[in-house]
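call fold(seq) -> tokens
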Amino acid sequence: MGGSSTAKKAGPRDAASKVAQQRLSVLELAREFGNVAEACRQRGMDRTSFYEWKRRFQTQGFDRLKDLPPIHRSHPQTTPPETVEKIKALALAHPAYGCNRHEAMLALEGMPASHRCYAGWTRAGRRARSAARQRGSAQAPAPASI
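ret:
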């Protein structure tokens, strides 16, 4: 009755280690069965995920079976908020100007950005103007007839 499984049991583990251990157990089960599909079926894992975890384990070891850290919500190339506000102000002040002209005007002021950025924000500005016009027409009194 010797304890053969005591080598794997260490002290308390964090949640990431428990998840990694579960993934490792699927890899071991597949090796035991000699059948990946059956091991995945028993553990409720799709085979694509199995092969991804197998590749990670073979190349970088047990630590790579843990979940990766989350991706930051802000992108390094995000347009700064002050530039966005300036674009919206230009779009409202000069509704007839296109994206290229807005881009050129801001470049002269030292605020260069991609024309795609201008297109998105000027579209947002047009939506804001349209909504303001609709609200204004509903609230404006009818002209008096003479």
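Residues 15-65 form one domain.
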